[in-house]
Amino acid sequence: MDEYREKRKRLVERLRDEFGLSDDVVKAMIEVPRHLFVPPHYRGEAYNDYPLPIGHGQTISAPHMVAIMCNLLDLKRGMRVLEIGTGTGYHAAVVSRIVGDEGLVVTVERIAELAERAREVYQTLGYRNIRVVVGDGSRGYEEEAPYDRIYVTASAPKIPDKLLFQLKPGGKLLIPVGDFIQYLYIVEKDEYGQITKKNWGAVRFVPLVGEEGFED
Question: Known catalytic residues?
Fold first, then answer.
């Protein structure tokens, strides 16, 4: 029995009303047990709407940020999605429920311990449409490219060229850009490969470390 389900449902319903979430996002966020993706001593805070530390100087994003990003991505069943920055794996888990078993989520994490922890939770939950890769997320993951959607859960100094290259024509990329001051950009590639960018607004994320990110 999931003792946290009612807390989770109340949180997600409030986020739905506040941010106009799609039914798919609401259903996925109610299904995914966020408390399993936070360190055990923070489980009592799992359904409060703020980030939580997960070790290694990283955080799990606040539920509202996960909800907003999933909503902005306009995810559909069967999509191939690339996530940069697995963390504990919660965000990718939500995305995986939206794209369904016929879809695929590839998530790249540079910290091996976090990647392994995420794999273990996915195995426990029976989520089989997520592939966890340890590596430099700023380079993307060419092996499974191109992707219908790409999103980044850390702030980059600029939009990495390799991520743009791995995005399908007609695809969408969501990425925070900036150092002290950060903005979330919605990047779209049209059928001819032309790129358009829209600034959604100010956000706060940990830095993206890597070849096309910040130095560690």
Answer: 61
